Amino acid sequence: MSYDAQFRVWRGDSETGELRDFTVPVNEGEVVLDIIHRLQATQAPDLAVRWNCKAGKCGSCSAEVNGRPRLLCMTRMSTFTPEDVVTVTPLRAFPVIRDLVTDVSYNYEKAREIPSFRPPADLKPGEYRMQQVDVARSQEFRKCIECFLCQNTCHVVRDHEENKESFAGPRYLMRIAELEMHPLDVADRRDEAQEQHGLGYCNITKCCTEVCPEHIKITDNALIPMKERVADRKYDPIVWLGNKLFRR
Ligand code: SF4
Ligand code: F3S
Ligand code: FES
């Protein structure tokens, strides 16, 4: 079924902007990104939107549809009725560059702050052996397409810009958890997660998990196990005594 949809799209830059109304034809089987492209082709040639694969795999087309963080290419028009107004706005937690394009460099900065995988110094190539259960755990986290929808959704930064300095966000706390649980990684990442990357800010609301297009169980499989590891360290009497005696 084809029909004319009512779209409300945010137009503007880092200084100013507004929601503008458009009427755009929709065809059977289309997704929101198709409509944004038709809008660009027919009525708003300078509309800025970031996209690449149109298959839910590059993580570029993240935006908010009716206030919910979504991949534009994976949001089917069939989830709306012809009477609905579909509002498309840029990710709220990151600064707008223009129209639907935001500056996501916060995420790249946080990625750079995490020390990389550290295998034992004497382990030679070919000696890396892992149990299937450990491989599977990493594989779940490695499905991440870096769409940053989880980063945009977490209230710790969505509502508190000032927390960005000290909070890495679910995607990068998950990266730390992946490395911490990796059987061949010898770095102890617990203090770092808690002190430098703000694991304690996470109060397990699970909003990050709800929006993840890869259905990664960010909270249950990464953040909570990481919190348990930090707690074990803090409340283990032997560790506590060791910290008292040997650390300042
Ligand atoms: Fe996107 Fe999920 Fe990766 Fe977060 S964890 S960046 S929501 S794919
Ligand atoms: Fe934020 Fe996810 Fe924790 S939404 S509060 S990082 S569970
Ligand atoms: Fe690649 Fe949407 S365009 S995920």
UniProtKB/TrEMBL annotation:
Keyword hit for Metal-binding: yes
Domain 2Fe-2S ferredoxin-type, first and last residues per copy: 5-92
PANTHER family from the UniProt entry: SUCCINATE DEHYDROGENASE [UBIQUINONE] IRON-SULFUR SUBUNIT, MITOCHONDRIAL (PTHR11921:SF29), SUCCINATE DEHYDROGENASE IRON-SULFUR PROTEIN (PTHR11921)
Pathway assignment: Carbohydrate metabolism; tricarboxylic acid cycle
Domain of life: Bacteria
Essential cofactor(s): [3Fe-4S] cluster; [4Fe-4S] cluster; [2Fe-2S] cluster
Swiss-Prot/TrEMBL keywords: 2Fe-2S, 4Fe-4S, Iron, Iron-sulfur, Metal-binding, Oxidoreductase
Gene3D superfamilies the UniProt entry points to: 3.10.20.30, Alpha-helical ferredoxin
Entries under InterPro entries matching the protein: 2Fe-2S_ferredoxin-like_sf, 2Fe-2S_ferredoxin-type, 2Fe2S_fd_BS, 4Fe4S_Fe-S-bd, Beta-grasp_dom_sf, Helical_ferredxn, SDH/FRD_Iron-Sulfur, Succ_DH/fum_Rdtase_Fe-S
Keyword Membrane on entry: no
Name of the protein in its database record: Succinate dehydrogenase/fumarate reductase iron-sulfur subunit
GO molecular function annotation: 2 iron, 2 sulfur cluster binding; 4 iron, 4 sulfur cluster binding; electron transfer activity; metal ion binding; oxidoreductase activity
UniProt family annotation: Belongs to the succinate dehydrogenase/fumarate reductase iron-sulfur protein family.
A cellular-component GO term for this protein: plasma membrane
UniProt record, GO biological process: respiratory electron transport chain; tricarboxylic acid cycle
